[in-house]
Every structure is written in structure tokens, then in C-alpha cells.
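Quick one, T. Sequence first:
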Amino acid sequence: MSKNKTSQAVALNYKPEQGGVPKVVAKGSGDIAQQIIKLAKENDVHIHESPELLEILIRLELGDEIPETLYRAVAEVIAFAYSLKDDPR
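C-alpha cells:
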């Protein structure tokens, strides 16, 4: 999940067990972005704020896989999110 201060959000879904690439499952601005962020928080989904990454992801269509050029950036976000889930704090 990525958001910025102009009230845009993009949600990605990644299922490593299926060998897939992260896909855009929700995106929007204004009220839709706020709803995406609210649902993410309610479901303990990691929210990552990166205006640069959001600028690219928001242009993708729902269901699109992230482009290969973003694999490293998104992999770092996913790895960080997984590390938070595994943190016993």
C-alpha cells in the first residue's frame, strides 16, 4: 500500500506461493484513497508512503502487474512489511 499527502493510494496484492508478481488491486484519490487507507489499517496491512513510487503505480490499471523496473523497489517494501509481521514486539 502506498499513499501520499495529495490523498492518493494504491494497494498491491502479492501471493508468493503462486509465484506471481505484485498486482494493483485498488487505487484512487480523495474519498476512495481514504477508504483504501482505512481498510488497510483495519486489516493490519502495511502502509508505505513513497510519493515517487505512488506516482508510477497510480498510472497502472486495476489488475496490472507491476512493471519489471519496479521489482526491486516493491520487493524492498514487501520485505519490510513481512519483517514487521514477524517482529514479536
